[in-house]
Amino acid sequence: MAAPLPDLVHQTYRSLFSEDPLLVRSPGRINLIGEHTDYNQGWVLPAAIDKQIVAAIGKRDDPIIQLHALDQGQTYSTTLHGIERSGLLWPDYVLGVVQQLIRSQYPVQGFNLVFAGDIPQGAGLSSSAALECATAFALNELFSLGISKLDMALAAQAAENDFVGVKCGLMDQFASLFGQERQLIKLDCADFSHEYIPFNHPDIQLILFDTRVKHSLASSAYNERREQCERGVALIRKHHPAVTSLRDATAEQLNRYVKPANETVYQRCRYVVSEIQRVQDGCDDLKKNDLTSFGKRMFETHEGLRHQYEVSCHELDLLVDLMQGREAVLGARMMGGGFGGCTINMVTAGEVPDVIYAITHTYRRKTGKELQVYLARPSEGTTVLS
Ligand code: GLA
User: Fold this and answer.
1) Is 122 exposed, middle or buried, given 0-12, 13-18 or 19+ CB atoms closer than 10 A?
2) pLDDT tens digits, residue range 290-348?
3) Is 168 in the pocket of ligand 1 (CB under 6 A)?
4) Is 61 marked active-site?
5) For residues 294 and 292, what is the distance between their CA atoms, to the nearest angstrom?
6) Could you identify the atom of ligand 1 that is nearest to the CA of residue 31?
7) Strands 64-69 vs 111-117: parallel, antiparallel or unpaired
8) Strands (E), the chain
9) Whole-model pTM?
10) pLDDT tens digits for range 37-66
11) pLDDT exceeds 60 at position 186
């Protein structure tokens, strides 16, 4: 049997650098509801999951940054003063965070970092945010920087925005750092206040169906959606200067000022404004233990992402359509940025094997692709191991 992830990472670090490292674990995330609302100052409802990046880190006495990605079998090194895009992608998630910390005047010095993970990549489970958060958390511990978890999340997001070039919101990084066992995080992306909502339902299983269609968030589509939302806000703002984001916008304003100007921008904004409200309503459902109502909203979110926001794809739509109307299925929708990745599904626990069997089989028959299935449960956020 393969060694557990932390042992593997620890041993590799030891064999490369002949000393014991500090070990940090940082998880991927799911999101129950609230998609593409984070960069519109709305609410999101993610949770950290029981799949993670494990990073081993140690100090050096020179200004070198020495990185080793076990899963990729690749090494990359640079210096604190020579940080630039690597051309390899994975080092950029680490380097982007280091650059942010240096910009904020934190006394980061040279270090070695070895990491590996079990978060499926390109599945929309935020393996990149997990690596960014592992880096920020590990550097904070190693050099006693005194950074708050919120500032770590913001530095990780800024790394992704400025260094990697994806204009993502704060959801993924926040969820990775702030996750708790059996809790969802209701995050207000306007002021970053948050509240935990218990998710402790032994009779319900969250299942992820991975289309195996690789999404590329770095592709312009994500940034384009963000720009379209900003255009919608600008159109309203001419008449209502107090509206600074879609969080403040009403359906009536969209009809009046955005629809006549640009139908596509209107459809994007209409989805976002409804989704922001859906998170609120969905949280009320959860507090009342009404998972049936919550599940219906998940299907509604999918409809909006499919037809108005247009970030779904054939495989995601197929998977959600296949779940519709099954008695054991409370809710299903595409999750994350879109254009591939996973659907998230809420299923009666006793029926899980039957549902998985049926969906896997039909997916194979209709697409020729092998569905990957993961069971997810809300888990603890970034921590020091050992
Ligand atoms: C990606 C981004 C997040 C969020 C989602 C869509 O995961 O990184 O910030 O915008 O897409 O909800």
Assistant:
1) middle
2) 999 999 999 999 999 999 999 999 999 999 999 999 999 999 999 999 999 999 999 99
3) yes
4) no
5) 5
6) 12
7) parallel
8) 22-31, 43-44, 46-59, 64-69, 74-79, 111-117, 183-188, 194-198, 204-210, 329-334, 342-348, 372-376, 383-385
9) 0.97
10) 999 999 999 999 999 999 999 999 999 999
11) yes
User: Does 225 have pLDDT greater than 90?
Assistant: yes
- Copy the structure tokens of residue 329: 């299925």
Bridge partners of residue 68, in order along the sequence: 75, 114
CA–centroid distance, 173 to ligand 1, in Å, is 10
Our answer on whether the CB atom of 36 is closer than 6 Å to any ligand 1 atom is yes
State the catalytic residue, choosing from 38, 92, 172, 285. Answer: 172
* Strand arrangement, sheet containing 342-348: 329-334, 342-348, 204-210, 372-376
User: Tokens 């390899």 map to which residue?
Assistant: 88
144 phi and psi angles, rounded to 5 deg: 45, 60
36 CA distance to ligand 1 centroid (A)? 6
Give me the phi and psi of 116, to 5 degrees please: -150, 165
Ligand 1 site, residue 172, Cβ cutoff 6 A: yes
Show Cβ contacts of residue 97 under 8 Å, excluding neighbours closer than 6 positions.
Answer: 132, 135, 136, 139, 155, 156, 159
